[in-house]
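To make this tangible, we now present a fold written out as tokens:
***
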Amino acid sequence: MSSACSRILDELNELLGGRCTTNTSICAQHGKDESRHPEMPPDAVCFAHSAEEVATILRLCHRESVPVIPFGTGTNMEGQVCAVEGGVCIDMSEMNAITRVSQNDMDCTVQAGVTRKQLNEYLRDSGLFFPIDPGADASIGGMASTNASGTTTVAYGSMKENVLALRVALPGGELIHTASRARKSSAGYDLTRLFIGSEGTLGVITDITLRLHGRAEAISAARICFSDIANAIDTVILAMQCGIGLARIELLDKNQMAAINRYSKSDYRELPTLFLEFHGSRSGVKEQAALFSDIAVDCGGSEWTWTANESERKQMWSARHAAAFAARAARPGCVAVATDVCVPLSRLAECIAVTRKEIEVEWKWPFMLTAHIGDGNFHYVFLIDPESEQEWAVFHSLYERLIDRAIGMSGTCTGEHGIGLGKKKYLLKEFGGAGTELMRSIKSAIDPRNIMNPGKVFEDA
């Protein structure tokens, strides 16, 4: 532990009534997320209960130039919670109050530690829901800090489209509101979206005002197989061009379907498969599904299965929800590492196909594909022996070429996981020197002592 951190421990414990710990196991738990990056524990973990406490912690850390790492649920995918330089981790999990819900305005305000499942359970009888589904039961604050998205983004957008305003504790301890609750404003710079996706490098998000959505009268689900991934992608593009209302549209390749069969003891066709969901009126979801089916069959789809029954719908989607567990089970003892590029829809089939050809030639171990196909965002999942230098070397070579390919197709190195530790060198490739320097200047202006999550996003930060 640094001497600077030691100097503020007594003050932190006095402030928090003993809710600051240097316990080795607790620090270790807060120095690792779901990524491939090694554990990097903080020197101390503080459990905050209010925005004011967060602001005071930051003020003390700023005074002594002690690094600060915000922590939600630890489900990040790019090492965002790793304490590269030690310091103080602020655990937001006990800031889990839903402070306001307005049914008329279709919005709510929550503390950063509220999780998406907790919020939707609270909203269950209101006729409203929060749509962003990144898979894990992530905290709302963490989802905002990484601009999370997921299976419903095609219909409802990412966090950027669903956050109206934030309350943020700045590095020096000031608390700011980034916007009002109004649905639109032309006042000043867009501070809300400056902090969304900043990965804890500019401040600590303490409260979030969210846009909510009305629950659909009816929901239907469908599944259809294809002999070729390109045909599945063509189907989705045509359906979107025809204005068919897709609420979820996910693609799993034959390897992923085979892994699901082994894991779940199911008997799905081991072919590229689309999983779909339609939201709307009872007649509307049936009509939309029928239109999609017609397009899919014309594009070579087969074995169309559709249902509006809730239990059958959940059963149908259980295969998609089991994908991550099935992938890990396909090679026990290995690390499942997911790529995360996003390209324009017109380049998606090409990007997936060229990458797959390279993988099939160079990668001798299990891999599979899952894609948020309506967004152009896909994940090739590699199962890697953590002790094999050869496997890591081949993976990194393939991933670097995939990212270069995506950026060359006017895409991005990360569709939803963020930069964190793993993709810092690709930021420059994507934005160029001037764009990256502008980001650095914003970081320096807000956090001149570089205490906010240092070592993330920028190569030498």
Summary: The chain has four domains: 3-93, 98-214, 218-326, 331-408. The longest strand covers residues 204-211.
